[in-house]
Structure to design on (489 residues):
């Protein structure tokens, strides 16, 4: 299986390549991708140089254009696609059907991957995208079990990529409005979930309080591991209870299911984390590369350290080993 | 990793003008060597950032666009647009991008407050800038460069063992 690795900066890109990535995915410095964070991402020149760095080492570059186009501003996305093709991107990762149509018509030779943001999770939806736009690969939403994936793979006419490690989005991706509800900005349209412009942290006695758009998202005790200030991982008062309504602050780790995913027909494993630093990228890529070559017995020791780098310092296999109804 | 008191106390007791002079020298040297920092910072370069090492009685206030760094005692309570605090070696490792800021935040080894957009822009700018403290400090040390570089590399090697 291929290892698809994140990069938010050229420095992180080089770390990913050097640590053993088969492909690195990244985006431009604007709202055309779902990690549109301050100080992050690539200029056209940086992307060109990074693609060249990867090609010289037999590592592919995928460019994420995975937000939904704003009516009246489509040219921003069309130009980004044209530029990525011109710069030599090996694949474009796209969520918006209209952008897929533009790429299929304007750049028929360009390899097209369907982003997780397209939220295509059944054979009919996936095969429609393959037949209509020539999609070669689809990134599956993090809502399917390993069994679901195994049942789906023989029915679809494209490669499947699954998230293996990193941030865990538990919602219907590309459809989630929680960030938009609290801030007016969403990963789907503006490329930002829980944008930094709306995040505040403050001390309240022994506790650290995280806020998003004026809403209190969580209160962490003195030594309690912290998480991102996202509503889906916020702590809520519900009737007489207090707790996590959707998901705890936790990251995804499905490396325990590596062999089952391989047997299921999965082509590529994706690491989430374009917003993370280059040290994180180097460490996670290196460990997962080793784990791919290791026996099942060797893997837990290789991966245990990664928990310390994870949200809430905990990991879960999430829906991949769904135990709830 | 917290600095041993045998190191932190003498540093904290140094006269502020001496620390200020040393900090300004290193700060300006580093900005000269890493001009791409400003590109990623964008408009946030005009904002003020406060760094407070938990193990020293010192606070550093920087404004990148103004190329200014001000050192004060913690009691001075200088205003800043965004602030970060944690053990000195953690802050220095973050400056070099040798550890992941999010991981340090999850572990509660790093506290942040204020304008998070500015702080995130700075984090990403630093991460891509390729700061190398031993090398950069060496360049600011004139004839003592080889000694300073070697010493700083030794300190970094020992410090990172506990952080990474």
């Amino acid at each position: 299986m291929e290892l698809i690795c994140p990069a938010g900066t050229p420095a992180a890109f080089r770390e990913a390549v050097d640590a053993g990535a088969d492909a690195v995915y990244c985006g431009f410095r604007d709202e055309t991708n779902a990690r549109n964070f301050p100080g992050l991402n690539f200029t056209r020149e940086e992307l060109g140089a990074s693609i060249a760095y990867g090609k010289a080492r037999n590592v592919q570059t995928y460019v994420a254009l995975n937000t939904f186009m704003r009516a009246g501003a489509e040219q921003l996305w069309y130009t980004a696609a044209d530029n990525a093709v011109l710069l030599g991107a090996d694949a474009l990762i796209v969520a918006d059907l209209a952008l897929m149509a533009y790429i299929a018509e304007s750049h028929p030779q360009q390899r097209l991957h369907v982003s997780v943001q397209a939220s295509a999770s059944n054979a009919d939806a996936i095969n429609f995208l393959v037949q209509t736009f020539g999609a070669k690969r689809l990134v599956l939403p993090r809502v399917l079990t390993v069994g679901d994936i195994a049942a789906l793979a023989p029915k679809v006419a494209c490669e499947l990529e699954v998230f293996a490690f990193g941030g865990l989005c538990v919602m219907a991706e590309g459809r989630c409005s929680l960030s938009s509800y609290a801030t007016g900005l969403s990963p789907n349209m503006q490329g930002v979930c829980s944008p930094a412009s709306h995040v505040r942290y403050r001390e309240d006695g022994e506790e650290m309080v995280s806020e998003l758009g004026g809403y209190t998202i969580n209160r962490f005790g003195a030594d309690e591991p912290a998480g991102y200030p996202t509503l889906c991982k916020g702590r809520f008062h519900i009737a007489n209870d207090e707790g996590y309504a959707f998901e705890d602050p936790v990251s995804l780790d499905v490396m325990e299911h590596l062999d089952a995913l391989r047997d299921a027909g999965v082509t590529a494993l994706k690491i989430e984390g374009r917003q993370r630093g280059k040290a994180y990228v180097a460490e996670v890529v290196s460990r997962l590369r080793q784990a791919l070559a290791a026996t099942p017995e060797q893997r837990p020791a290789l991966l245990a350290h990664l928990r310390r780098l994870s949200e809430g310092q905990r990991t879960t296999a999430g829906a991949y080993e769904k135990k709830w109804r | 990793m917290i600095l041993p008191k045998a190191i932190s106390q003498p540093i904290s007791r140094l006269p502020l003008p001496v620390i200020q002079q040393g900090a300004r020298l290193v700060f300006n040297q580093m900005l000269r060597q890493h001009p791409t920092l400003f590109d990623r910072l964008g408009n946030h370069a005009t904002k003020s950032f406060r760094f407070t090492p938990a193990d020293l009685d010192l606070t550093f206030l920087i404004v990148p666009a103004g190329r200014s760094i001000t050192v004060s005692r913690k009691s001075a309570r200088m205003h800043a647009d965004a602030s970060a605090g944690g053990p000195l070696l953690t802050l220095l490792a973050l400056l070099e991008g040798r550890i992941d800021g999010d991981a340090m935040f999850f572990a509660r080894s790093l506290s942040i407050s204020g304008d998070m957009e500015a702080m995130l822009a700075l984090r990403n700018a630093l991460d891509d800038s390729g700061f190398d403290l031993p090398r950069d400090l060496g360049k600011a040390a004139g004839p003592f460069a080889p000694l300073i570089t070697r010493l700083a590399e030794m300190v970094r090697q020992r410090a990172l063992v506990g952080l990474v």
Observations:
- Chain B has one domain: 5-131.
